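BUG: 3D viewer hangs when loading the predicted structure for this chain

Environment: internal workstation, default settings.
Expected: structure renders.
Actual: progress bar stalls at 90%.

Input used:
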Amino acid sequence: MKPKTGDAEITSPVLDFLQQLHREFSTVKEGEVATYIPELAKADPDWFGLCLVTAGGAVYEVGDTRQEFTIQSISKPFVYGLALEDNGRAATLQKVGVEPTGDAFNSISLDLVTGRPRNPMINAGAIATAGLVAGKTPAASFKRILETFSLYAGRPLRLDQTVYRSESETGHRNRAIGHMLRNFDKITGDPASVTELYFQQCSISVNCRDLGVMAATLANSGVNPLTGKPALRGEYVESVLSVMGTCGMYDYAGEWLYNVGIPAKSGVAGGVLAVLPGQFGIGVFSPRLDVHGNSVRGIRVCQELSRRLDLHLFNRAPSGKSTIRVKFTGAEFNSSHVRHPQDERILRESANSIQAYQLQGHLSFTTVEPVVRDVLEQSTGINYLIFDLRRVLNLSESAGHLLHSLLLKLATLDRSVVFTNHQHLPLLRRMMKSKLGAKFDDIFHTFTDNDHALEWCENQLLEKHSDTRVLGVRIKIADYQLLKGLTAAELKVVESNLKARSYKQAKEIISAGDAAREIFFLSRGVVSIYLPGEERHRLASFSPGMCFGEMAFIDGSPRSANIVADTDVECHELSRENFDELGRSHPALKIKLLEKLCLDLTGKLRKANRELDVLE
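Structure tokens produced before the viewer hung:
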């Protein structure tokens, strides 16, 4: 996944991580290629591919992911799913159990009490399962298997005739198992035909990407996330994953479930398929096998993925909601800083490059990956990225690694990432400080709330347009927004009723509870409105040209908030007495001013309503 930005490409942090694992484990030379099936012995021991496919359809692949090999025992859970669909659970359980054995995959043994193979993942159970696939003839049964596997993979698969012949010519042990099953009535009809069907299902040609997609289909309740087509009825997915979890890795299954904690299945051609339900599927291909018949690199990769990304099945955080609660741009939701019209025009044209995400719930690799993917898919339009963490319950190290990687990638393109409401997640700051080192102060931006973060992003945008802005200039009376459109004579009347005022930085201009005796016109500097109380919560900030203190001035109620000078401030004051006098001396002018005040207030109310709609 490589969204383009001009001449630059932003690769996903997930892909970066897979590339790191590929480099790390490419040096592993332990294990031997399977030789008991002659055709498998021809595999290059250095082939190595990794593929991760999410339940949402994102595909990340590294290495030899398009190298064809035969599916071998990885076919077993998929054929078991077919048997469940064709016969139901009860009838299938009459023929094949679900208990782990601790025995090797090719052991010749049946349950002493029931006479059944102990589970569908060992060869005896898989042969019995193949005999349960619907079809009037063995050819029809195989056609059904091949078509179903193709649904899982999202592309037409084929039988590798060479490997099939090699399996058939050397599969005497499996034929013995077939005859034993026939003796105990666990398969019906000719055992040779059923055993040949089993050889065929193991000889279907796939690649590492196919394994990832097939695993993701199981993770996605049996529906292929790339094609949207169902491959297995959802009610049987849990049964398939259960036997994969307890029996899928043969006599290594218990240790696998304990250490890795992800339902998985391996094959002697070097494939490993693993499924994290509801999240994603993993495919690994490397022909070097350990003593259990599992891919050495495949096992190591899955172990590292589980450890570094917190993937253990029994360590899942509660979910049920999307990690992205709300998403909006700076054009849809502004800061509370009321700006000069010239600045507002600049922001209207460029504030879409501010993108904010309000996240929620438990942040782990599996919940943050879709967020990172969403950012990268629209990265061409993002200059400032805000992550609001107020509703996040906790943050794992794997989620922190993804966020750190995303921050670095965007920083190299001169993009900024801002975190807000993060105080309850100290791990985020510690990780960023440790990993960013000397860059920490320059690129790790944090604010206590969204409003100040949005204002900072807006200011950064406005700074880039400084040549078109009027910075630090005193606004003339005729340029006050409330007075625009007045005639020269009307302006002269208003000006005669104004009184110049100046306030030092941090001076409280208006105090909550005071009588509203004046309205202010801001000539120079910035002021902010705060609710009274111990915690200063900013309601709005005003730039030159704006008026403030008008609400209480209009209805005559006491002041409801404090207004403080953020900088040294110059303004003009229109007193209640002078405004009332205008009503007697120039009533039409007073009415015009009241109309402008009402329009200004309704504009602010409509803006608030629009922003509420965005949040909803």
